[in-house]
């Protein structure tokens, strides 16, 4: 006959074969929180660089009627617009990430949120890259002309704005990879919670 | 007591709960083949457009010493190089797709193949888009100058080359989405075979 002591021990011993659902869930929640924190960092970096790029481009006029103005060049308007869009988007995505980290749920329904994030990350990353590439081509063309010879600061400031835009693109691209992974988790596991 | 007839019927009746592994595998193979055929179509389109873009750019010089030449512009050299790289890459990826459709196995080991495809699709899509955006900015700048006023054909041909490059990018982007899905299948299911 088994002693009561032995029986109690056996009952209290956790089974290694059947992990507790609560334990699993806690690990998933912690993993997801770390993952969301990483996305938040990338989105914050993307926001900062895009905002800085927008500000550098907007303030890029020298005041005189003969001086060049960024609004005279289509490619610079494109750089400004793309960076402004990405800055606004990154700001709202940051808020959504903070909400998710604090509340544990997505702002939109889960399926909409994961598709929204990935789709917009992809489109805006392509948009920002094409704007910055167009801006780079324009700056390189201007470099051999009077515009850059007479008003050097205009070209330097344009170059800085574009470089900041490229940095913003880099972090947006990283966010896009992570949101793609989250979407894949959702498609294959039916939940944005990681493996 | 159960009759032998009843017993036999029960044994012969196929169970709806446990599908035959062979049936599943055949469906997966067929799905994968259709999927690979779709990728092959996109890669073929991407190859055609990039090659056409490369040819249009290379032949874009008017012969005279005063006439503009595509090699005088960095952005056009970038358009040529990016399209040439994508054309070569798409050609080899087409061969790899045909191999996979015919033989049923990947050219490289499966894990390398899915990562190689997705990584290169992403990088080359970004490369091609930035080249075409830079080319567009240059063409728009040139449009107001003597280069386009005197030699209209040069600017028109550059524009066509860039437009073809954008079409190539579109199909490369679609391939990238599909190869991303295949990679996700591999990461989550341990096999490139679809769900």
UniProtKB/TrEMBL annotation, chains A, B:
The keyword Cell membrane applies. Residues 1-21 are annotated as: Disordered. Signal peptide: none annotated. It is found in: Cell membrane. Residues 35-170 form the Casparian strip membrane protein domain. The chain crosses the membrane at residues 38-56, 76-102, 123-142, 162-188. Belongs to the Casparian strip membrane proteins (CASP) family. This is CASP-like protein. It comes from Tetracentron sinense.
């Amino acid at each position: 006959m088994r002693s009561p002591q032995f029986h109690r021990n056996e009952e209290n011993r956790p089974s290694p074969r059947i992990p507790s659902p609560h334990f699993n869930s806690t690990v998933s929640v912690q993993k997801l929180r770390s993952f969301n924190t990483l996305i938040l960092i990338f989105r914050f970096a993307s926001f900062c660089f895009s905002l800085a790029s927008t500000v550098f481009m907007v303030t890029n006029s020298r005041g005189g009627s003969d001086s060049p103005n960024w609004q005279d060049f289509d490619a610079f308007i494109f750089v400004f617009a793309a960076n402004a869009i990405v800055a606004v988007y990154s700001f709202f995505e940051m808020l959504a990430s903070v909400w998710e980290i604090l509340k544990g749920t997505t702002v939109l329904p889960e399926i909409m949120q994961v598709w929204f994030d990935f789709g917009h990350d992809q489109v805006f990353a392509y948009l920002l890259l094409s704007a910055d590439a167009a801006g780079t081509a324009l700056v390189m063309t201007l470099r051999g002309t009077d515009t850059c010879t007479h008003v050097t600061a205009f070209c330097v400031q344009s170059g800085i704005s574009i470089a900041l835009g490229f940095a913003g693109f880099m972090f947006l691209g990283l966010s896009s990879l992570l949101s793609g992974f989250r979407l894949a988790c959702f498609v294959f596991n039916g939940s944005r919670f990681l493996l």
